[in-house]
Amino acid sequence: MPDPLHSDAPQARQADPTAALYDELLELALEAARRAGALLRDGRPADLGVAATKTSPIDVVTEMDLASEKLITGFLAERRPDDGFLGEEGVSIEGSSGVRWVIDPVDGTVNYLYDLPSWAVSIAAEKDGETVVGVVAAPMRGETCHAVRGRGAFRNGEPVGHRPAPPLSQALLGTGFGYLAERRAAQAEVVRTLLPQVRDIRRGGSAAIDLCDVACGRLDAYYERGLNPWDLAAGVLIAEEAGARTGGRPGQPASGELTVAASPELFGKLQPLLDELGAWHD
């Protein structure tokens, strides 16, 4: 596997402090994701218990979510004690370095609970509010996708890129659904109207993996309402660095209101259609 940090990294460290910082953040994110992925894969109990619930009884938080986040934050804080953190399981630390880690310790919790393979560890690093490094590790796929802003996107160290844009009628879309009944009903109505206009729609269960699948050419596009920063931070950067266009409502960045990712030409057709269909509200 090619070195994801690139062979010229030592020279970059000497010549460009920003490049050196990005190299360091990528190296740490890759190692933290590898360790957390191994913990989750190898430590998953056969009778996986549920520690608590989130917004509804369907949306579970497992003991392994908490263990994964603790592993990641502990590893990163030991090496960069002045950084900030934002994590799905409650960690929120301001930090003083200008770097903040945005962490989803298990993206695709329900898949993980049911022993389905589409779950991932998602780690992004922001510098002064801009996402500059993203890593999505999917251990049961045997894949890790990563990106550094301005350097392209990679899967297991090999460069990736989005699929050529098909006509909308031939586009394979990924999406996801919220856990609250009211939101699910609204999202189902969007799917009902959209489905006859596209090739098909997939619901994989992990936003981070869906965004990486756009980056790797496995989906033509992806959209979803209701994502949190930790759901989308790493995957959006990876999709962008693979040449895809991302955003929310017209003129807005990807956010909890709406996240869309597709090749630029397809994005130009899909985003206004989703806006017209009201994919951004419940």
Number of strands: 15
Structural classification: alpha+beta
Number of domains: 2
- Give me the side-by-side strand order of the main sheet: 4-3-5-6-7-8-9-10
Instruction: Name the helicity range.
Output: 25-40%
The low-confidence parts are 56-60
> How far apart lie the N and C ends?
44 Å
Please report the first level of CATH classification, the CATH class of the largest domain. Alpha Beta
Number of helices: 8
In the CATH scheme, what's the topology name of the largest domain?
Fructose-1,6-Bisphosphatase, Chain A, domain 1
Indicate the overall shape: globular
Task: Write up what this structure looks like.
The protein is α+β, with helices and mostly antiparallel strands. It folds into two domains: 9-159, Fructose-1,6-Bisphosphatase, subunit A, domain 1 (Fructose-1,6-Bisphosphatase, Chain A, domain 1); 168-277, D-Maltodextrin-Binding Protein, domain 2. 38% of the residues lie in helices and 24% in strands. The protein has an eight-stranded mixed sheet with strand order 4-3-5-6-7-8-9-10, sandwiched between helices. A hairpin with a 6-residue loop joins strand 1 (50-53) and strand 2 (60-62). Helix 1 crosses helix 2 (17-43) and helix 2 (17-43) packs antiparallel against helix 3 (63-79). The protein is globular and about 50 Å long. Residues 56-60 have low confidence and may be disordered.
